[in-house]
Amino acid sequence: MIKRIIYISLGAVFMTLAITSCKTPSVVEKTPDTAVPEHFDSASDTANTARVKWQDFFTDPYLSALIDTALNNNQELNIILQEIAVSKNEIQAKKGEYLPSVDIRAGAGLDKVGRYTSRGASEATTDIEPGREMPEPLPDFMVGAFASWEADIWGKLHNAKRAAVARYLSSVEGKNFMVTNLIAEIANAYYELLALDNQLAIVKRNIKIQHDALEIVKLQKSAAKATELAVKKFEAEVFHTKSLQYDIQQKITETENKINFLVGRFPQPVIRDSEAFIDLVPKQVQAGLPAQLLDNRPDIRQAEMELAAAKLDVKVAKARFYPSLGISAGIGFQAFNPSYLIKTPESLLYSLAGDLAAPLINRKEIKATYKSANSKQIQAVYNYEKTILNAYVEVANQLAKIKNLEKSYGLKAKEVEALTTSINISGDLFKSARADYMEVLMTQRDALESKFDLVETKMQQMNAFVNMYQALGGGWN
């Protein structure tokens, strides 16, 4: 009997499918282009710095401690971890949709019908047993188990579950991408803080040099070898340089607080060692092959998982055009007296039913949903291709930046050396009246700016070193 019902239902399904399948709208399919150049430059070494763990890549113990704290306390990262938990629960929810639903029910009631009705008249003439009339009012007691199940003939529910799995994996990759960015942001802010410390030290040394020069000019004015104008110019330069230190101190405070925010704590001093900053030499970064970006970059893998989920969404939307088969069943005991519940087969109840539902009136809504799912799939393809292209461009830019900054730093170091020497020369010439005060002032200002530029270039070198690691996809593993 059960097999017969199922066969009849399946036959009706396939008959309905033959009618509806020919009306399923066609959509445009697009395959992502994942081809990348064979190499970034002339090098074709497969060694890749992205495989290096961040603990080995960043050797400064103070920076490592900050990163470690951030990976535990950063609020944004913890928010993403909760989003991952939500995505994981979605998998269980989707999995539960294609499994049978079983409920246990128990109930009790009381029923009184009118005597002068067909049911009332019938019950009045019916005896339960010889000599025992039907009770009035009629109690009703029931206990049983009931199940319902939608047969996933077209894979709609399974594909929805697979899409949830893909989105869960995408959220994991999103977390990895967040970790990569967080590590890079902390490292860049840390090197910026070291650069500001060095610039502040330069300003303080320059203030002393300018103050000494001011005292010399005052002595020369007393000896009638200089004018009041020269004294005021030197005083103004000292005041200007002193004001710079407060601008730098404000930037130091803001950078410290930026780091404190990233590591999830209230403002406090950031422990660091700034003395060796100018002598830092970035490690050699190995870019590997462009094709390795597809495995190393979390954002690329995230886009790939989103594309996989979008493709499954199209299958789910397409399955809505086809009929759905539902099966329900129940078994239990029912009687008007609790003592009769255990008397079988008289108190036994059971049911088995199948229902077939096919879309008829709302096909336009289903078509629109199907087309929207396909458009989102194509959108996901373009996003996947864009992410791959962006990753390649980022690596190419950082490779060029590292090389150019290396050359620039060498030239700026020579500039600082020349201008530092020129400060002493201009001072000696000024003492012997062979140079005017403006030449001394301009030389001091140029030397200060060149030292600032040198520190700035060193910071850019370290940032390029960090950004290259980030662009390659390092830090999350």
UniProtKB/TrEMBL annotation:
Keyword Amino-acid biosynthesis recorded: no
Subcellular location: Cell membrane
GO molecular function ontology, one term from the record: efflux transmembrane transporter activity
Membrane topology: Lipid-anchor
Pfam families assigned: OEP (PF02321)
SUPFAM superfamilies: Outer membrane efflux proteins (OEP)
GO cellular component: plasma membrane
Keywords: Lipoprotein, Membrane, Palmitate, Signal, Transmembrane, Transmembrane beta strand
Cleaved signal peptide residues: 1-23
Family, per entry: Belongs to the outer membrane factor (OMF) (TC 1.B.17) family.
Name recorded for this polypeptide: Efflux transporter, outer membrane factor lipoprotein, NodT family
